[in-house]
Amino acid sequence: MNQQALASEMDAEVADFKPLTAEEAQRLRDANPVLSPWWVIAAQVGVGVLVSAIALLWVREWSAAWSALYGALAIALPAALFVRAMRITPANSQAAMLRFAVWEMVKLGLSVLMLGVAWWLIADLHWLAMLAGVVAALKMYWLALVARPKLLKTELKRP
């Protein structure tokens, strides 16, 4: 693609741009409310409790239940720290990107560290139960992506 064609496409996009009126912007905000990330973390803890109960019923050992709950908490607690850290937004976009990357690495590192010391913290650790807790907690991110459109109003209100 040559430069002239690219420039003409960019000009066409700029020509099609129409700013929203205040009423249109308000309708757009009403149709797409911001969801709190805390409900995802609450869902991770909730599914951790559920998997823990299932592990207790299945294996009939409390160590399996604690292992499953610990696996979910190894995902939920670092995610809660990440959400808390991301609440303060720097004015500079580059600083915001760096902040996001650093806290994402902290979140991942803390999860790996928690999983690594699990054998030391939980007597008679059940690795499969812990893995089930981890996987169930991680699936809550996907559930958030799938459920978000259903939780929000998808159509703009007509005046």
Counting H and I runs of at least 4 residues, what is the number of helices?
7
Q: Ends: how far apart?
A: 43 Å
The percent of residues in helical segments reads: over 70%
What is the percentage of strand-forming residues?
Answer: under 5%
Radius of gyration: 22 Å
For the secondary structure, the number of strands is 0
Q: Given the helix and strand composition, which structural class is it?
A: mainly alpha
> Oligomeric status of the shown chains?
single chain
Secondary structure topology:
Blueprint: H1 3-16, H2 22-31, H3 38-59, H4 62-85, H5 93-116, H6 118-121, H7 127-151
How does this model look, in words?
- The chain has 159 residues and is mainly alpha-helical.
- 77% of the residues lie in helices and 0% in strands.
- It has helices at residues 3-16, 22-31, 38-59, 62-85, 93-116, 118-121, 127-151.
- Helix 4 (62-85) packs antiparallel against helix 5 (93-116) and helix 4 crosses helix 7.
- Mean pLDDT is 84; it is low at 152-159.
Short description:
It is built from seven helices and no strands. It is mainly alpha-helical.
List the defining traits of the structure above.
mainly alpha; single chain; 159 residues; 77% helix; elongated; disordered C terminus
